[in-house]
Amino acid sequence: MFAQIEKDLKILNINLNKMVGPRHPILYAAAEHLFHAGGKRIRPSIILLVAKATSRKEQLSNEHRRLAEITEIIHTASLLHDDVIDDCSQRRGLGTVNSKFSNKIAVLAGDFLFAQSSWYLANLNNLEVVKIISKIITDFAEGEIQQALASFEASISINNYINKSFHKTASLLAYSCKASAILSQSDQYTQQQFYLYGKHLGLAFQIIDDILDILGTYKNMGKLPGSDLKNGNLTAPLLFALEECPNLYNLIEREFDREGDIEYTIRLIKSTKGIEKAQDLAIENVQASIQALHNLPYTNQSIKNLILLSEKVINRMD
């Protein structure tokens, strides 16, 4: 699926290290720790494939490459801040930056990466792209606020959950895919279809991550199951399970503070159709992402690979 851009991803990794830069040794060490913590570069890979899909002869420009790099830097910056907010000590099986260094260094490293991404974004010299990528950083902050306000709040709706998930996760893919099409000088209809592709794929990613927080193990997730629940993040499997299991309300109300509450909550969720309904929601979004590509008046190998990527997202649950 990524063989088409294998060489491009190697260039991306080299450039990322150069972009972060060694001028601030502690911040560089913090960012480098996360860059090398086993990330799969899914987001920049998607941006590179969109660039090839919308370009003549599927050729990448320097601006396309830089956009993919900016996307990964923004994503990494958001992870640094997320780990501080959620008090995470493990990510991808390794100690988080905040546990390895400190919360202060993790926050500063995240701020540093956001600033770096803004600098390189401005140097793309494309005002439209600058506007929509800047919106991503605003969305991240809004999503974190929405999540914080809804902590342990059992009355939130699935629509609230989807809205929060868009701001925290899907916004990055949606706007970056659109920006990649803009850099290819695609028409507005094509830009919108790639925006929809990124939006629905991003939502599917988040929903499946939330399912794996219930079904996964430390070995395959790099963190303990139920981490989201412990932090008060009520996700799709739990929200759907509440419809069948009122006992869950008592556990949420006491914020899972008794020994064994998280394990008991996971067992209750598994006893309902909560996970099945969350899977259906993820599949709907995957299908919507694929439909957006089918709506395009053309196809090429890059589009076929983007469709394969969407299909593979569902396989993460197998």
From TrEMBL:
Extract the GO molecular function terms from the UniProt entry. metal ion binding; prenyltransferase activity
Transmembrane stretches, by residue range? none
Pfam families associated with the record: polyprenyl_synt
Q: Does the keyword Metal-binding apply?
A: yes
Q: State the source organism's domain of life.
A: Eukaryota
What processes does the entry annotate via GO biological process terms?
A: isoprenoid biosynthetic process; quinone biosynthetic process
Q: Which InterPro entries match?
A: Isoprenoid_synthase_dom_sf, Polyprenyl_synt, Polyprenyl_synt_CS
Record-linked CDD domains:
Trans_IPPS_HT
Q: Which cofactor does it need?
A: Mg(2+)
Which keywords fit this entry according to its UniProt record? Isoprene biosynthesis, Magnesium, Metal-binding, Plastid, Transferase
Q: Which family does it belong to?
A: Belongs to the FPP/GGPP synthase family.
Q: Which PANTHER family match?
A: ALL TRANS-POLYPRENYL-DIPHOSPHATE SYNTHASE PDSS1, GERANYLGERANYL PYROPHOSPHATE SYNTHASE
This one is known as Prenyl transferase
Q: Which species is the source of this protein?
A: Porolithon onkodes
Which gene is this protein's source?
Answer: preA
